[in-house]
Amino acid sequence: MRSHSPRPVGKRPAIAVLVALVAFTAAACTSGGPQAGSAVAISSGSGSQAVPPPVVVRKNVMSMTTAEKTDFVSAVKKLKTTPAPNDTRVTNWYDHFVAENLSKLICWSATVNQGGYGNYGPDLLTWHRAFLLEFQDALTQVAGHPIPLPYWDWTDPASTAVVFADDFMGPSGKSGDNYVVTDGPFAKGQWAINVKGFTTDNPGQFDDLVRATGTIGDATELPAASDVQHALDRPLYDAAPFDPSSDSDSSFRAFLGGNIGASGTQCKEGIIRVVDASGSRLDTTVLRYVGGVNDDGHIGSLTDTATAPNDPVFWLVYANADRVAEAWWKNRKYQYLPESGGPNGANLNDVLYPYTDLTNGSMAKPAEQLGYSYDSLPTAGGVPETLTTVTTTTETATTHTTPTTTTTPTTTTTTPTTTTTNTTATTSTPTTRTSGSTTQ
Question: Which residue, of 117, 410, 432, 439, has the greatest Cβ tally within 10 A?
Answer without folding.
Answer: 439
